[in-house]
Amino acid sequence: MRGNHDRHVETLPGRWRLDVRESHADEGPFRFAHPPRSMSGRYVWAGHLHPMVRLGGKSDTLRLPCFHVGRDMGVLPAFSAFTGGLNVSRRTGDRIFTLAGPAIVEV
Length: 107
Fold this sequence. Notes:
The structure is a single chain. By secondary structure, this protein is mainly beta. The chain has one domain (14-106). 0% of the residues lie in helices and 39% in strands. Strands 1, 2, 3, 4, 5, 6, 7, 8 and 9 form a 9-stranded mixed beta sheet that branches. The two termini are 28 Å apart.
């Protein structure tokens, strides 16, 4: 999915063999899109928000990219120094996963 950070790129190298979509892709029960927008009847996987989770106490904290998985939508992290990030607001039933070395850990 093209996102707001790469819309100016007209073509990608053919050797990357990517199926580039401008808007979204529907596969089975899922919709894959850049902006996170709910859709009735499909579970949406999106990006754009660059979710982050804050771990620790008041004076000793880590702020890490995370996967924010909700009831009808999951938002994928961005692992880049250029993207900033949005602190996750956890709702009842949400699940948050972050990376700890080579492992993905639920927090």
